[in-house]
Structure of Putative ATP synthase subunit s, mitochondrial:
Amino acid sequence: MMSAVTRSLPGLWKRVKTCRMAAGIFLWEQKNVRLCHSACVKQLPSSSTKVFRSNLLLQPQSWSTPSHRRLWGWLNTIFNRVDESRIKDVGPDRACAEWLLRCGALVKWRNMESWTKDYNSLPVSGGRLLKVEEIDATDSAIMHIGFPHFKGCKHIRRIVFHKASYLDDAGLEQLPLLKDSLEELQISSCGNVTEEGLRHLKQLKNLTYLLIYDLPEIKDKDAMCKELEEALPNCAVVFPYASAKDDPNLREKA
């Protein structure tokens, strides 16, 4: 596998070896890749972190050939994989934060103002005392197979899913894991989300604000909005336009 990747993507192997992030060290041995977690890892320079985020967490549309898309989908599957032993060792919030960060999302801890943006800024010790409160999954590579990380996280009150290319109905089906804490939710520019996925949000009875837009698979926006409003009477459901191109202000920001 290593030689095949090296031939098809010159320089990739060199980047992978230099990007020894805290999520683990990728060992390419013949046809296997093994993800090894470590609580204490070598500090990376910021340039290496940028290389990792820009080259390993690429969205599938960034590649023109099916083989490239399969490769990155396969790598992202590894990044999303749940490690039960890791959760047991460091606790659900720390393990959840590690998953989110290695997939390109940002995390804000409870009672902290700043966002944690990369794996290297995670605390080496005392992780069980930190609780995830907000998540910004913009442009992240999170997949539904990683959503079990939310189990046991009791303080997550706000999540933004924007341009999360791998987010799908199977992921939204697991969001009720956060039904006791989640208050604000945004789902936008996620092309794999359908009406069936949004219907799972009806179980989030503590939601007070729901923003959804630019979801091309939603065929009847008004009907979907009404359905959610009826199921969530205490939630402000905002579905202002069918697609991002319909809003000139959003288009200018893009």
User: Anything to note?
Assistant: The chain is about 35% helix and 15% strand. The first strand starts at residue 25 and ends at 29.
